Amino acid sequence: NPDPNQNLTACVGSKLTKPKLLANGSRGYSFVVDAGATFHMVSDRSVFANFKAHRKQFSTAHEGTPLVAEGSGMICGQCFNGREWCNVEFRDVMYIPTGLHSNLLSVRQLVNAGQKIDFDGDRVTYLNSARHCIGEGHAFGNSLWSMTIAIPHPELAPLQASSNAVLLTDG
């Protein structure tokens, strides 16, 4: 199995790093696992499997600067759980083209979908509703955790199938 730590694209400062090609034929995107985020958020329109355009403004904890979503949709990808790549789908992901410094996974959305998030020292683990581990990540910076999501692109090879598929949604 590939070592996903070789391909992590952790956020550095206030810039998103370019996704890297992973051994499973997808691009690895770093997501901050955020207990304060109301929604999953990304700044790259190309990661959506389906998308609906609309505008929605959000307030933020960072200096009160509002973010504007220009749509939302579903992202299909895979997470590495330490042994294998597991299929995941994230629904109701907001597309924030400007002002977003990191892709965000909302702990609130994951928990509302029946998932469990465990923060333990320098590791973050999340489990599906059957409490099987479907993803792992690591701590970075000052009390932040990051997880890599492998997302296929049309020009790349398709994702490899896994028997551990899970749907992550907000209702």
Question: Which SSEs are present, and which pair or pack?
Answer:
Layout: E1 20-21, E2 27-34, E3 41-42, E4 50-58, E5 67-80, E6 85-95, E7 103-106, H1 107-112, E8 116-120, E9 123-127, E10 133-140, E11 144-151, E12 166-168
Task: Describe what you observe in this structure.
With 171 residues, this protein is mainly beta. It is built from 1 helix and 12 strands; from the N terminus they run βββββββαβββββ. Strands 1, 2, 3, 4, 5, 6, 7, 8, 9, 10, 11 and 12 form a 12-stranded mixed beta sheet that branches. It is globular. The protein starts with 19 loop residues before the first strand and ends with a strand. The relative contact order is 0.26.
Number of strands: 12
Q: What count of helical segments does DSSP give?
A: 1
Helix share, percent: under 10%
Average of per-residue pLDDT values: 77
The largest sheet, given as strand count, sense and whether it forms a barrel, is:
12 strands, mixed
Distance between the termini: 33 Å
Order of helices and strands: EEEEEEEHEEEEE
Rg calculated over all Cα atoms: 15 Å
> Which assembly state applies to the chains in this document?
single chain
Low-confidence stretches: 1-17, 156-171
Global structural class? mainly beta
Strand content: over 45%
Task: Based on Cα principal axes, name the global outline.
Answer: globular
